[in-house]
Every structure is written in C-alpha cells, then in structure tokens.
Amino acid sequence: MAGAGDDDFHRIAALRDLAEMKARPLWQALETASSRAARAALPTGGQTSGGRSTETIGFDASAMQSVDNRQSRFPFLALKLGLSLLVVAVIYEHGIFATAWRQFTHVDPGLVLLAVVLGLFQTALGALRWKNILILLGARLSTREALQLFYIAVFFNTYVWGGVGGDVLRGWLAYRTGTAPADAIHSVILDRIAAVAGVALLMLFTIPWFALRTESDAMLRFLSVGGAGILAAIALVSQLDRLPEKWHRLRAVRLLLGLGKATRRTLFSIGALSVLAAAILSQMAFALGTYSLAWALGIEIGVLDCLALMPPVALLIALPISLGGWGVREAAMIALFGAINVAASKALLLSVCLGLVAQVVALPGGVMWLFWREVSSPLDTARS
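Request: output the structure for the sequence above.
Response:
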C-alpha cells in the first residue's frame, strides 16, 4: 500500500511540476501584448484592428504580476496550509476519515454514484457559464475546448495549488488557444463573479424556507445581508470604468477599467440570463449532490435544506484561504447545518465525504491535462 501511495504522490508531484513549467511564462507573455494595448487605449480610446474598442483591454500585466507575487508570499501560503492541516489533524484525531471510509463501503453505491454524476454535471455547467461569458466578450472558444480548460482548472484547484491557481492556468491556456489576453483574463475573473452571483441569488431565494427551519436570527441576518451585499458589490464592480479620469494614471485603476465595462456586458445585459442560469443550476447541482450523500449516510436533512445551506458553503470554499477547500468546508458545514439541529459529527462526516467525492470528480481534469495539446497563440504566430 505504501508503494502505491508513493506512486500516486509522485504522479501528482510530476503534474504540479509540469503545470508550473508551462504556467511560468504566463505574465511574461501577457505583459508585452497587454501593456502595448493598454498604452494605445488610454490616450486615445481607439480601436483594435478587429474593430473592438481597446478600452476593454484596460489592465496592466505588471500590476497583475505584482498582485500575484504578493499573494504567493510565504505567510499567506503558510496560513492556507496551516488551516487545512489543522482541520485534517482534527478529523484524523476523531477518526472521521476512517468512519467516512467505512460508511462509503456500506452505503448504497447508487447514491454515491449519483453524487459523482451531479458533480460532473456541475463542472459541465461551469464550463458552459464560462463559454457564454467568452461569447459575450467577443471571444470564441469551442464547447470542447471550454470544457477541457475548465476541467483542467478544476483539477489543479482541487489537487495542486488550490484557490485560484487553476484559474490562472485556465486563463493562460485560453490565451494559448487564441483568445485575446484581455478576454482571457477578464473571462476568468467574470466567471468567478458570475458563480458568486449565482450563490447570492440562490441564498436570497431560499431564505424564506430557511427561516422556517431555524431559530437562529443571526444566521438569517448573515444569509440575507451576505446575499444582498454580494449583489451590491457586483453592481459596484460594473461601474469601475467610470472612475474619475485623473485616477486612470494609477496602475491598480488601469487594471480595473476594462473589468467594469466587461462586467456590464456579461452580467447586466440580455445575454447575462444564460450566464446566471448556468450559475444557479450549477449551485443547485452541488446542493443535490450533497443531499444524495446525506441520504446515503443516513443523515436526515431535506432537499430544500441543502439548497439553502450549500450555496454559502460554496462561497466560502471558493475563497483562496485553504488547500482544496479542506478546513473551510468543514467549519462552514458544521456551523450552517448546526442551525437546523444537525449534530456536528454528522455535519463533519458529510463534509469529509463531500470532499472525497470532489477529489474523484476532479480526476478527469488531470487526464485532460496530460493529453492536452497546446496550440500557438496569434501573438506567437505574428512574432514568428
């Protein structure tokens, strides 16, 4: 068994090293194209050769590189690693992993398979959401390519970097397939924003049901204020390109100029309906997968309970403060399901099993990465 474990470890390490090797030139490749476009756009607000306004390319790659460097400093990584290891230690101390494995070997395999299928469906909906965003931005990516790149990002977010590392790789691969640098970066950011919007909308839709299931006024206020605050923040992001012109000299502001206009185009237009529908359906699939696992484990909760409680869990595990969501997911599910009188041990068990299913669901992304064949971007073609 130890030999097999070592082989798995080395395979994952090899994937990580390969990903880092391919992603290393990301900001270097984007910096030349984006900075030239930004310099051309800021003084004149002219048009690109394709007829699209260069104002939509309002970001500075060097500023993004600076932000990325700050986020990757040791204390932040140590915090993420420490939080995840702390929870894993607690889980191990209480024998939850062993209990989860025993439960898995005795539950109805059909219900576990259903949870896996719903996880795959959630991933497909996420890829469709991202593809629709690219279309609204004027970029073109085939459905097959969108699914492959999205799945590769899910794999790296789950197994290797956690948080947003997979999204950085997704933007890089989208650029390598011919997507403009600005569209590649904006689409990944907007996909995150759209997913959060879907979470907020589902939270607000299910609050009346949750109010009937709990006596915790604090939890109700958290969900209500949180959902409304998220939507208000997204509306604020959509106005970033309307900041005073004298602020445009600041690198951080230039980074946000194009994002504001892109947000309005993708989330505040008729086309946004397809994006938001995919975001909401994705969260519903996540909730239904959780319900399927709870049913398999004999935990007595309803479908509407999962629809009300899992969106905020999804929101918290999307934050880049843990590795693969471990730790944050467990704490969130214990707190939220505790509000409807689910024992902490059962909520923790459900969370661990959900994490194990997520690991299984992400595995095809690693296979897609191994067989991914990179194509040259238009920028590389022009240079050659």
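The two ends are 50 Å apart (CA to CA).
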